[in-house]
Amino acid sequence: MLNFLRNIFAKKEVTEIIDPKMKFLFIGLGNMHPDYDDTRHNIGFEVVDVLAKGNGAKWKNDTLGDVAEIKHKGRYIHLLKPSTYMNRSGKAVNYWMTKHKVKVENVLVIVDDLNLDFGKIRLRTKGAAGGHNGLKDIEQVLGTSKYPRLKVGIGDDFKKGRQVDFVLGKWDKKELEGLMDVLNDSAAACLSFATIGASHTMNQFNK
To answer: Which residues lie across from 23 on neighbouring strands?
Structure first.
């Protein structure tokens, strides 16, 4: 009984000392099915996988997705891979924002971008969905386009009418040679966002 009470008070104490400004939610967008593994559209999943692995975090299946938690320079960062499929990502984002009481300015959505060359990354604090269905759904559910997102370039090396095949296609040999560098840069930009803020991160990482 004594140990039970100690656990209750210990958990309460930890919860109370976490400054809301120090809590973040990083969402890697993708489709959670083996058919989509190692595809360009799932690069958001790959970025948060790098963050989890690099910080010794373990994924667990939970409501509307797989989740993990990391700490970095005093920041408490929740990682999420929605299981709702890309086009319904908003439901998972909203659920975990609410659950962890994370402010929208401390949310970071990591997403593939056709309009950026492979290897380029670009942080934005707001903006249009740009035709990306995952971003469209998040905007619709949250009721705002003013949420941070890290766009990771996948290029547009496809013939007319083959966009879907390209986006849902596997990385080719040349891309795989540079993919790890892209993922590491993207993960570093995410951590920078949490520590030095959006403005300084954009100056340092936007290419």
So the answer is: 76
Domain with residue 39: its CATH number is 3.40.50.1470
Token pair in block for residue 144: 């705002």
How many domains, in total, are found in the chain?
A: 1
Tens of pLDDT, residue by residue over 40-98, are 999 999 999 999 999 999 999 999 999 999 999 999 999 999 999 899 999 999 999 99
Nearest CA to 46 out of 139, 207, 175, 165 is that of 175
- Catalytic residue numbers read 41
Scored b (16 or more CB within 10 A) or e, 123-145 reads: bbbeeebeebebbbbbbebbeeb
Q: Is residue 167 part of a domain?
A: yes
- Residue 146 lies inside a defined structural domain of this protein: yes
Range of the structural domain that residue 118 is part of: 22-205
- Which residues on neighbouring strands pair with residue 112, listed in sequence order? 152
3-state helix, strand, coil in the chain (%, to 5): 50, 20, 30
Structure pTM?
0.89
